[in-house]
Amino acid sequence: MDTNNRQWWLFEFIILTIQTGRFLFYVILSFMGESVLRSYCPYDTTAAPLFHYFNHQNNGTPLNLTDCRLTSIILTFFFFFILHSQYIIFLTDHNFIAWRLLFDVSNRNYDQYRVSIINGQNMNISKMIIKTLFYRNKFNKTISNSSSKMMHNVLKKMIRKNEKNFLDKLIIQLMLYIDLYKFEKLRLKVFSYAGLKQRIELAITMFTLHCIDVFMMILVISTTFNLGCLKYFNFIHIHMMNLWPFAIIDCINHLYCGYIFIRNCTLYFNFSLISLIYYVLQMNSLNRKLNQVFGNHRNLMNSQLNYLRQLIWQQFQRQHQHMTHCLMYSGLDIWNNAYFIAIISNIPFNILCIYNLIFRYNSLNNRFMYLGFLIFQTFIIFTIVLVATLLNFSFHQFKQQLPIIQLCNIP
Questions:
Q1: Nearest-CA neighbor of 158 among 173, 143, 145, 148?
Q2: C-alpha distance from residue 205 to each of 21, 55, 270, 271, 390 (Å)
Q3: Which residues of 196-231 are buried (b: 16+ CB within 10 A; e: fewer)?
Q4: Nearest-5° angle of CA 330, CA 333, CA 338?
Q5: Which of 259, 263, 278 minimizes the C-alpha distance to 103?
Q6: What is the pLDDT along the chain (411 residues), one digit of tens a residue?
Q7: Residue closest to 113 by CA, chosen among 175, 194, 156, 189
Q8: Start-to-end CA span in the chain (Å)
Q9: Cα gap 238→231, rounded to integer Å
Q10: Contact indicator for 352, 338 with CB cutoff of 8 Å
């Protein structure tokens, strides 16, 4: 992340602090009694629609103070989560291992892949994915300016010789367009032992995440943001037209805070997924090596095989311990607190949205607004929990090989 934007990040942090303080003020106000709340709502273009002030006034019914208090408390927690995510992502020390390993497997790896593309090759990943998906056996017969024509010829034969799944064919096709020796020399700094295949899969992941981010942004803006603005300005037009300048400022403020929330959640999602992809790919590769050398029970006393087993086991221990160290300390530095705050802050808000969606009458616009927000929220939280589950499985699946390792007397 560009440190030149630090002043703008601080400005966003101040905006979020003001918004959090504002909803905390609503909490205090809701506990001061109905008369105080009724006297305040006509002058606040956010509190009036939030507490349904004009609906109760027109119907001659008292304000539901319990509902007002719960809504204020939940929104305060929600803005505290956005404030905390802003601090974690943009204002913490980026020299922590959590940020260095994320930069290593995402930006640095993708930049090195782009640098390794052979000069003169007009490579478009989107077109290549479509080509690999629909034209299974139609690949370029010649690749010019290659540093190793023999290597590229071998890759092309691999495509045609055996039936492969879509991902394998895409990886081989991407290899045809890069200087493999140059890409291999450009090692990562934190994970210097990452293999070529894993690194190309990480590059594909970066491109895929970009597409998902664009889709999710369009989905949320087209549902929650647009419908929320229409509902808000319709309310202002009917009840508070005399305060329209303050309503515009409030709307811009809420929209920008919503954008910050979506951006930060998207970054959380990207960070979780790119870490998961790397750890799972590397652990699967290590476990395949263990299965290959320890899977033969008939040659337990073969000296050459035992020497190979010892080398593979030592390599496994070094890499497993290093990845465990990175995972544990990145969690202690950043992610444990971030995930805890995210779950504690967002679950009550999701319950509030579901309650309004199921037990209250809502127009079609309101339902789309609630559904768009819930889909986005659920997708992010589900992904984070899934990441933790898969990481736990990947780091412990080697235990199936422990009995044979003990039989072989591997130190």
A1: 173
A2: 39, 49, 10, 11, 17
A3: eebbbbbbbbbeebeeebeebbeebeebbbebbeee
A4: 90
A5: 278
A6: 666 788 999 999 999 999 999 999 999 999 998 899 999 999 999 999 989 899 888 888 888 888 888 888 888 988 998 999 999 999 888 888 889 999 999 999 999 988 888 765 555 665 665 555 555 555 444 444 444 555 555 555 555 555 556 667 777 777 777 888 888 888 999 999 998 888 988 988 888 888 888 888 888 777 778 888 888 999 999 999 999 999 999 999 999 999 998 899 888 888 888 888 899 889 888 888 888 887 765 555 566 777 788 888 888 889 999 999 998 888 888 888 887 887 787 777 778 778 778 877 766 766 776 777 777 777 767 777 787 788 888 888 888 777 777 766 666
A7: 175
A8: 43
A9: 11
A10: no
- Written as six digits, the tokens of 34 are 């109905």
